[in-house]
């Protein structure tokens, strides 16, 4: 789960690489959608210089279910049908579509040691990864191999914890400059010859989809529970949820999980970590 992953993270390179894996071909659309959402969330949150990601698939991916059989765990939205999940995302522009069309990398066992976080989009994918590790006589129960939906409720839990600790109200708005992103306010307080020291200030979790299209909340977020600090209309009534198309619900689960993953990884930066600009 999230606890095992957090203990395994190594921030000594000052960044992390996340690998979204999908065993459901031939489109591997869920991994590509997770990659797209993760990049957009990181850009909107200013964490794109700390968190990087890629998508991967399997050359020997099992076929979608059909008359000849297949994995019964996989529902009707398989193979090319998964593209309907990506198509359910509103307000996509030309560069967004180009991002989604970028094919995934082909998974290899070497990837397990390269990426800091390996995120399987479902249990069937994680089982396939573990099976390949066991075939190679390697440990298959690794802390950094996790499920995408492990993070579906991460934002909500961290928001409750943040409010209990008073971090949201105690956010430091004092003008100054420190490691991380240089803001216009920080530039005014720049002192030539004075090195930047210390860990970047811990950011509040912020709003669910800050900096992202409002239509994503309206179409994709309705199926999840309401979070503290959000408008009451952020969660749909049961009858409204029942009316939402399955593709939108699936895309919403990916979005909610990706938001939780980004927040969790940002919170995992060690508070006593020495940064590259914090040397004596």
Briefly say what this structure is.
The chain has 280 residues and is of the alpha/beta class. Helix content is 38%, strand content 8%.
Itemize the secondary structure elements and their pairings.
Blueprint: H1 2-8, E1 16-22, H2 29-45, E2 51-57, H3 83-87, H4 94-101, E3 105-106, H5 110-114, E4 117-120, H6 123-135, E5 145-147, H7 154-165, H8 184-188, H9 214-220, H10 238-243, H11 246-267
Parallel strand pairs: 1-2, 1-4, 2-3, 4-5
Helix pairs in contact: 2-4, 2-11, 7-11
Topology as H/E string? Answer: HEHEHHEHEHEHHHHH
Question: If you compute it from the alpha carbons, what radius of gyration comes out, rounded to the nearest whole angstrom?
Answer: 20 Å
Query: What spatial order of strands do you see in the largest sheet?
Result: 3-2-1-4-5
Please state roughly what percent of the residues sit in beta strands, choosing from under 5%, 5-15%, 15-25%, 25-35%, 35-45% or over 45%: 5-15%
Integer average pLDDT: 77
Counted by DSSP, the helix tally is 11
Q: Portion of residues in helices?
A: 25-40%
Explain what the structure shows.
With 280 residues, this protein is α/β, with parallel strands linked by helices. The chain has eleven helices and five strands, in the order αβαβααβαβαβααααα. It has helices spanning 2-8, 29-45, 83-87, 94-101, 110-114, 123-135, 154-165, 184-188, 214-220, 238-243, 246-267; strands at residues 16-22, 51-57, 105-106, 117-120, 145-147. The protein has a five-stranded parallel β-sheet with strand order 3-2-1-4-5. Helix 2 links the parallel strand 1 (16-22) and strand 2 (51-57). Helix 7 packs across helix 11. The longest helix is centred in the last third of the chain and has 22 residues, at 246-267. It is globular and about 50 Å long. Mean pLDDT is 77; it is low at 66-81, 172-179 and 223-244.
């Amino acid at each position: 789960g999230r606890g095992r992953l957090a203990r395994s993270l190594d921030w000594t390179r000052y960044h992390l690489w996340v690998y979204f894996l999908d065993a459901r071909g031939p489109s591997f659309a869920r991994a590509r959608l997770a990659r797209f959402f993760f990049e957009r969330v990181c850009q909107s949150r200013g964490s794109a210089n700390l968190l990087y990601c890629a998508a991967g698939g399997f050359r020997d991916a099992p076929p979608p279910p059909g008359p000849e059989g297949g994995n019964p765990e996989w529902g009707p939205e398989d193979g090319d049908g998964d593209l309907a999940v990506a198509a359910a995302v509103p307000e996509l522009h030309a560069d967004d579509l180009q991002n989604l069309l970028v094919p995934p990398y082909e998974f290899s066992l070497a990837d397990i040691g390269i990426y800091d976080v390996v995120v399987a989009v479902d249990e069937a994918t994680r089982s396939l990864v573990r099976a390949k590790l066991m075939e190679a006589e390697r440990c298959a129960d690794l802390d950094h191999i996790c499920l995408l939906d492990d993070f579906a409720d991460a934002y909500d839990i961290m928001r409750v914890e943040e409010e209990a600790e008073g971090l949201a109200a105690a956010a430091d708005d004092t003008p100054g400059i420190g490691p991380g992103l240089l803001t216009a306010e920080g530039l005014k307080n720049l002192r030539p010859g004075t090195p930047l020291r210390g860990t970047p200030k811990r950011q509040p979790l912020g709003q669910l989809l800050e900096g992202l299209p409002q239509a994503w909340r309206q179409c994709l977020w309705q199926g999840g529970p309401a979070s503290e600090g959000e408008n009451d209309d952020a969660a749909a009534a049961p009858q409204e949820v029942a009316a939402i198309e399955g593709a939108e619900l699936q895309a919403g689960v990916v979005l909610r999980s990706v938001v939780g993953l980004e927040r969790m990884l940002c919170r995992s930066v060690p508070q006593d970590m020495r940064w590259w600009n914090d040397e004596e």
